[in-house]
Each structure stands twice: as structure tokens, then as C-alpha cells.
Amino acid sequence: MNKLVTEIISYLDYLNTTCRLNTSIHFVKEKLSCIPERELAMLLMYNRHKNPYCIKVKSNEENKKRCHLSQSLVLKKCSDCGSFCGVCYAGVREYIYPILEDGLVVGYATVSGYRLQEPPKRNINLELWENSLSLEEIPMELCGALIPPLCRMLELLFTYPISDIDSEYNLMLQFINEHHNQITLSELCRQFGRSRSYISHMFKSKSGMNLKTYCNNLKLEDAKNLLSKTEIPITEIAFDVGFNDVSYFIQLFKNKFSITPLKYRKMHRH
Fold first, then answer.
1. Which of 8, 15, 204, 229 is most buried as measured by Cβ atoms within 10 A of its Cβ?
2. Do 196 and 189 meet the contact criterion of CB atoms below 8 Å apart?
3. Which tens digit of pLDDT belongs to each residue from 221-249?
4. 114 plus 231 within the same structural domain
5. Cβ(221)–Cβ(213) under 8 Å?
6. What value, to the nearest 5°, has the Cα angle with vertex 78 and ends 77 and 84?
7. Where are the strands (E) in the chain, listed by range?
């Protein structure tokens, strides 16, 4: 399975970088127990939209909940009509293609980052909606040619025999990835009915790092996208991605990437 996951990630990077198709992948929770922990951690890096507008939208917990609730509607529509184009509640146009197992929808791949002429009624940030989303038509022929092979590879994940997979950790890992900008150890304890010491020990033994470090790494990746693709002030970016202390954010960013956020923005400004 490791080789397959490596090929899937290479293909996702090709879609996102070379083809400039903002592609993400999503699974129903029941299927997370079919993917080994190490491979799942690698795939979850592609489990969220990375365009600046979506990062901004999900900096608000209520908006994040709406986004997660809408995923069940996407799964139902995939079951009813297969692939389709739609507009999410925040005004982002998307191309959706189902991931199947024995004819049942167990997930979907998304090409996102497009918008309509008129802004949505529920607009989060009009300037960012206009500047970070493309007004071009979704390239349907390109998506129709390149996304189905990705889904076929993802479907192969579920043909491997399940052996010694910690489904609780997998569910916890997905939850952390979805809520990394605001998650706390106490919240995880409430969500999964475990003690602080149990979760701390399990997460460290499985991931090789503590929860805070893992979440901070995800926050810093979000910050990189906002720094390179928007003019949002660095102070605001720090709060958007989940840091309460701007100086701490700058220090962590410099420690991880050997460059300050300001210099990173100047070097990678689009």
C-alpha cells in the first residue's frame, strides 16, 4: 500500500502544481479504518482546500461546521448523479467526482477555487473571494480526463486486507486535521471520551510528535498559502490560522522555514 499511496501523492502534486487544479480528497469516516496510520497521515494533507478564501472561511468555527455538514450532501448527490459541478455555501464553485467501493460512494475528489460573477449572499470576505478565486470556467474536459484516474487509485486503497489498524487514532487524526486551527487536548478528550494522558501518549507514539507541534505545523502551512497569495496583514494571518500571539507565530515560522513571514511573502508573492 505504501507504494500506491506514494503514487497517489505524486499524482495529487502533479494535479495541483503542474495542472493548477486545486485538488483535494475526502473519505467517509467508516473508510478511515481501512487505511494504515502512516499512509492516512500522508493523505490527510490533501484532505482540505488550500486556497486563501477557504482558509479564511474556516478560521471561523461556525463556518467550519457548515462546511463539514455540507459534505454529507455532496456524498448524497454523488450517489444520485455521479460527478457534478456545484457551488458551496461560501460561494466556491467546485467539480466533484465520486470515489466508489463496490458501487457505493465512500468519498470524493474535488477541484475547487472558482467563483461566479455575482458574490454569494453569505459572503465571508468579498475582497478575498474576488482575488483568490478564479472567474474562469471550470476546465471540465481536463477534470474529466485527469480526476477519474485519481479516484481509481484511491479506490484501490480499499482492496488491501485490513490488518492491525487503530481506527480510533485514524478518526482522531482526521478530526485534528479538520480542526487544527482551534483544537485543544481538552476538546479531544471530550470528543473521544479519553483522558489527557491517554491521548497525549497515543498521539506521540503514533505520530512521533506532540499534538501542539502537529497542529502548529498545519497552521504554518496555511500561513504560507495566505502569505504567498494574499495581501492580508501578517498579524491578521497569524490570528486566522489559529495563533493568539503574533510574536510566537513569527518565531515558529522562522524556526521551521528558516525565514521570517515577511521575507517569505516577498520571495513568493504571486
1. 15
2. yes
3. 999 999 998 999 999 999 999 999 999 99
4. no
5. no
6. 85
7. 22-27, 84-87, 93-101, 104-114
DSSP string, 76-116: HHHHHHSSEEEE-TTS-EEEEEEEEETTEEEEEEEEEEE--
Give me the count of residues in the chain: 270
CATH of the domain at 58: 3.30.450
Query: Measured between alpha carbons, how far is residue 215 from residues 36, 60, 114 in Å?
Result: 20, 16, 28
C-alpha distances (whole Å) from 144 to each of 44, 47, 88, 112, 149 are: 23, 20, 20, 14, 9
Same domain for 154 and 185, yes or no, is no
Query: Sorting pLDDT into bands at 50, 70 and 90, what band is 34?
Result: confident
Which segment of 36-40, 57-61, 98-102, 168-172 scores lowest on mean pLDDT? Answer: 57-61
C-alpha cell recorded at residue 254: 522562522
pLDDT (average), residues 122-126: 73
Q: pLDDT tens for residues 149-198?
A: 999 999 998 887 766 677 889 999 999 998 898 888 999 999 999 999 99
Cell digits of residue 220: 504554518
Strands (E), 70-208: 84-87, 93-101, 104-114
| Residue found by looking up cell 492516512 in the block | 40
Longest Cα separation, the chain: 51
Q: What was the pLDDT predicted at 163?
A: 65
Q: What angle do CA 182, 75, 158 make, to 5 degrees?
A: 90
**Under 8 Å between Cβ of 90 and 53:** yes
